[in-house]
Amino acid sequence: MTDLTFDRNFDVTPGQPQRLSPLVRRVLVNNASPYTFKGTNSFIVGTGRVAVIDPGPDDDAQLAALLDAVKGETVTHILVTHSHADHSPLARRLKQATGAATLAYGAVEAPPSSGLRLDASIDHDFVPDARLADGDVVSGPGWTLEALFTPGHMSNHMCFALKEERALFAGDHVMAWATSVIAPPDGDMGQYFASLRKLLDRDEQVYHPGHGPSRRDPLPLVRGYLAHRRMREEAIRARVEQGARSVSEIVAAIYADVDPKLHGAAALSTTAHLDHLVAQGKLRKVEGVYEAA
What we know:
By secondary structure, this protein is of the alpha/beta class. Helix content is 26%, strand content 22%. A hairpin with a 4-residue loop joins strand 10 and strand 11.
């Protein structure tokens, strides 16, 4: 089994632009939490005529920081990896300030969840000016971004590949500091597995995620994610076959080493795993209760 190790060494100052490469700058949002780590990463791609990826939550200080970072430049595109409330809401105000069009896979049609509300709750007001399909390209002087459809964490999740630097803006699909929460009904574990496998066929050399530090040589991390999810899924199936019936009972058993503050998020991913097991015919769901198949 591939080991999954995390990197939580991430010493950054919110609002201060940090150059990561010749084409990439990062501006961290000051919205730290158990789910966002030190905050949401916004990225500026290019010089002179630039794209902004994931402006972040609707926050006055973040808008000011982004506008200051691109002073004297022209924002030509605003790209959004997915419409969670810590990634997309500021796109509206950034568009008003710059005139740049917003681009993403599309809006989310799923109803608001009646369960736990995380920082990553859905921004139902987000509708991009233009929809991107898998393989679409957005470009500017010296930079080329390819849209890569990666549903799972969210049904409209996209990554963006920067061809000139063999880099991937990974959103919340793959992060170096922690695993991603998959929250039904919009999050889908089967799609998530498929989207992880999709990355294994690509050649990006560095991932810039939506939270936490960038990751060089990222494919071992992707393989670690896949192995970790398969391990969790087998542990969940075993608990059900041993008689566990409630999600809370399963979480208490297999997430005993996880901070209890995160058990709500673990319950969401556990439910996604259970639904995936049902879809594979490995469990069945009868009157809301999961049983051995």
